[in-house]
């Protein structure tokens, strides 16, 4: 069972929750959102994800593999700038890479649909 609070980032007595403690993505996503409470961080994630999609389209259109590399740099680069520069935390992708990758795209959709403020 997870020790995450509704805000997700801290458990009992303010201790940090280890992202590896979540047993499902549904448990992890509130934690993920709490780790992206800074609006600038979310905007940088959104920009990086958008650029990664553009790079994916260019990869498919041209077949040139460097677009894949540029997509990774854009997606992760902007996200890490958001975390280290604005959110002041470490990206959960260091401990939960798959759930974090999934969280990026669910948050991206949630921003597009207005569920999360941009």
- Gap between N and C termini, in Å? 32 Å
Task: Outline the low-pLDDT stretches.
Answer: 1-8, 10-14
Oligomer: single chain
Tally of DSSP β-strands: 0
Mean pLDDT: 88
Biggest beta-sheet profile: none
Please state the structural category.
mainly alpha
Q: Helical residue percent?
A: 55-70%
Q: Enumerate how many helices there are, as a single number.
A: 4
Strand composition percent: under 5%
Order of helices and strands: HHHH
- Global morphology: globular
Radius of gyration: 15 Å
What does the model show?
It is built from four helices and no strands. It has 118 residues and is an all-alpha fold. It has a domain at 38-112. The protein is 61% helix and 0% strand.
Précis, in short:
With 118 residues, the chain is mainly α. The chain contains 4 helices and no strands. Helix 1 (25-34) packs across helix 4 and helix 2 (39-62) packs antiparallel against helix 3 (66-87).
What are the key terms here?
DUF962 domain-containing protein, mainly alpha, 4 helices, Mpo1-like, 61% helix, membrane, transmembrane helix, 118 residues
Describe how the helices and strands are arranged.
Elements: H1 25-34, H2 39-62, H3 66-87, H4 97-112
Helix pairs in contact: 1-4, 2-3
